[in-house]
């Protein structure tokens, strides 16, 4: 099975992956590029140049990829002939990012006139060095694009420094700051759900909506990322990027068009409208947690302080819950509850929109706290559920909550690309809508930094929660005092 290229007239593509032997390349990038190749979504003359310090020739690298990357391709998508064809696209370039002569060797391999995409799947501390040396080697031209993996900095100052350094060599229109959550089908569908349905847009505001919940829960622990994670924590790793991006899509005003800057302008307005936290707000409206020994996936698992490469006195949070407010007319007095954590009860990402109850209780015999909700499930299932009230069969007027359930996977027969595949195709085709602009990134850090600094000032340890639970008890109290509860 040999795919037919969908873009014969495109420039030849040289996709250069820095960190081409790393975990991200093996688990996500190469499987995504294989799927794009399988379905004819790469230009006809594509090469994938993977860099690393190993002494691989092309054959040895192809063997390494077959061993470490092929297992991440679903069996129903794997074809031996296609895989063999995909491996012919791969070339390994031995490169030490600190060695300028190695970039000269990369320039010799790269084709003149090709569309060059540099994917920096490395530590952010190397972004500046790589971009400087790419430019010195003459590899950055008007057709070049650079993809920056998160976390982009660890605070506003470092994010500005990275943006300045990369911006010396690449125009803003050439920079793709990737957040894979923005490549998820359901997240992109949220824009259509909001602005393509006249029954929702008029009520998508206060006082019709009384609260919004955004949860990104992970069942796994920190695993082999413990060394990195302990210097990062859940706030930097998840809230500042993934959760804030979801919040922006839920809360933004209708853009004037779907042009990249029109959409990103509206997201930026949301970030700038987020109420800043005072120290008193941080003490009252945020919860930090750290998982302890418990049960995950049906077996006993270590606590965070028992993980390899984690200091015994670590105060790094593996869980964050907080109450945020957006100071605009649309969202006046509507709390946004954000929650993320590792070693939670199960893997689950969802957005829950809770609507106001009718102004007059016509059915007083019915239980309190039962309301209309729109539940947007992002993972592991992809579904949109509208919870409404219906009459129970029989005499009387007893109500019962029922669900109108749209299972997106069964509703559409077309193949659903994974997030990285979709975003990589966007990079190749020059689509910036689902990537963060510089001012977006810096506005997000500007909001998050005072919270992180406030935790240091307060000096409190993260609250312990058992692995396999839904987090510290204080996170439930955070909602309960407003009359709400986390939707499970």
Descriptive tags:
disordered N terminus; single chain; about 35% helix; alpha/beta; nine-stranded mixed sheet; about 500 residues
Describe this structure in words.
The protein has 488 residues and is of the alpha/beta class. Helix 1 packs across helix 13 and helix 9 (233-251) packs across helix 14 (438-458). The longest helix has 21 residues, at 438-458. The protein has helices at 23-38, 58-68, 80-87, 100-109, 127-136, 156-167, 185-195, 226-230, 233-251, 260-273, 279-285, 408-411, 419-429, 438-458, 473-480; strands at 13-18, 46-52, 90-94, 115-120, 145-148, 175-177, 209-217, 286-292, 294-296, 299-301, 319-324, 336-341, 348-355, 373-379, 383-391, 399-407, 463-466. The radius of gyration is 24 Å and the shape is globular. It starts with 12 loop residues before the first strand and ends in an 8-residue tail after the last helix.
């Amino acid at each position: 099975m040999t795919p037919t290229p969908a873009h014969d007239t495109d420039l030849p593509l040289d996709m250069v992956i820095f960190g081409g032997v790393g975990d991200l390349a093996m688990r996500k990038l190469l499987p995504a590029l294989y799927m794009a190749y399988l379905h004819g979504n790469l230009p006809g003359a594509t090469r994938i140049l993977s860099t690393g310090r190993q002494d691989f020739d092309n054959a040895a690298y192809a063997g390494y990829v077959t061993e470490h990357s092929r297992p991440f391709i679903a069996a129903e998508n794997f074809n031996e002939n296609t895989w063999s064809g995909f491996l012919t696209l791969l070339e390994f370039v031995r490169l030490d990012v600190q060695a300028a002569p190695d970039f000269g060797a990369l320039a010799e391999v790269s084709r003149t006139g090709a569309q060059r995409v540099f994917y920096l799947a490395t530590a952010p501390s190397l972004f500046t060095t790589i971009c400087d040396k790419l430019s010195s080697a003459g590899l950055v031209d008007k057709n070049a694009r650079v993809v920056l993996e998160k976390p982009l900095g660890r605070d506003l100052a470092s994010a500005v420094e990275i943006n300045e350094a990369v911006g010396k060599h690449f125009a803003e229109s050439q920079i793709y700051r990737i957040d894979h959550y923005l490549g998820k089908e359901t997240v992109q569908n949220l824009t259509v759900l909001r602005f393509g349905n006249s029954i929702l847009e008029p009520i998508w505001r206060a006082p019709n909506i009384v609260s919004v919940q955004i949860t990104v829960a992970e069942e796994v622990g920190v695993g082999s990322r413990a060394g990195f994670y302990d210097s990062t924590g859940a706030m930097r790793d998840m809230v500042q990027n993934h959760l804030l991006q979801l919040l922006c899509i839920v809360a933004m005003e209708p853009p004037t068009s779907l042009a990249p800057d029109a959409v990103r302008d509206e997201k930026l307005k949301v970030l700038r409208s987020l109420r800043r936290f005072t120290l008193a707000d941080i003490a009252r409206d945020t919860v930090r947690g750290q998982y302890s020994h418990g049960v995950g996936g049906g077996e006993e698992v270590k606590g965070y302080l028992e993980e390899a490469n984690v200091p015994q006195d670590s105060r790094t949070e593996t869980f964050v819950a907080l109450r945020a407010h957006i100071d605009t007319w649309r969202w006046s007095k509507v709390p946004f509850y954000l929650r993320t954590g590792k070693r939670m009860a199960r893997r689950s990402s969802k957005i829950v929109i809770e609507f106001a109850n009718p102004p007059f209780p016509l059915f007083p015999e019915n239980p309190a706290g039962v309301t209309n909700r729109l539940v947007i499930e992002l993972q592991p299932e992809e579904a949109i559920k509208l919870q409404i009230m219906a009459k129970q069969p029989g005499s009387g007027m007893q109500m019962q909550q029922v669900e109108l359930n749209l299972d997106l996977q069964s509703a559409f027969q077309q193949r659903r690309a994974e997030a990285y595949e979709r975003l990589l195709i966007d990079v190749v085709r020059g689509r910036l809508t689902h990537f963060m602009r510089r001012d977006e990134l810096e506005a997000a850090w500007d909001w998050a930094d005072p919270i992180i600094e406030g935790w240091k000032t307060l000096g409190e340890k993260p609250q312990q929660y058992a692995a396999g639970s839904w987090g510290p008890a204080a996170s439930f109290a955070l909602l309960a005092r407003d009359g709400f509860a986390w939707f499970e």
